[in-house]
Each structure stands twice: as C-alpha cells, then as structure tokens.
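Troubleshooting: if your tokenizer reports a length mismatch, compare your output against this known-good record of 102 residues.
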Amino acid sequence: MSRILIVQGHPDRHRGHLCHALAQAYADGAHGGGHSVELLEPARLSFPLLSSRDEWEHGTLPPQLAGAQEAIRAAEHLVFFYPLWLRASDPCDRPWLGAPRA
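Known-good structure output:
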C-alpha cells in the first residue's frame, strides 16, 4: 500500500472542471487498489505569494503551508492535475510550489 498525495491544481475552487474529475477518478482508483490517498487543493489555501528573490532564498514557510509541506514529505507518490494553459503549470501553483522550503 502506498501513500499518495494528489495535488489538484485548478485555480477555480468550484468543482466541475476536468482537473477535478480526473483527480477524483484517480483517487477512487487508488482507494480501490488499497492505497492511502490525500487530496490537496492549493486554490483552497490562503497564503502570501513570494514577492522577491530574497523571500525565495531567505524567507520562511508561511504557517498556512505547513500542512501541505508535511503531506508532501509523507507521500510516497505525488500526482499533479492542473490545466495546461500556456504549456506550464497554473499561476496559482507556481507560487505555492515555490514557497520557501524548511
């Protein structure tokens, strides 16, 4: 049994988008296979965005992201779902993934 963290990165908090459906289908299949699954939706978190290189290099992790950081550490598998706008991860995910790491 694996510990799986699904990061559903669509910036719209309301369900009903393809990313939400894909993440749910993956979670259902993983549960059905006996795996432990946690879902994380950065769009539902409230945290300050990085605003400078100094914050990136010397900043501290916002307390709102401590749970997300622990979920990433505990996961054996990470699965990301996000819209492929502009051939890159969504702007909402970039600052979340770029938050200083402790």
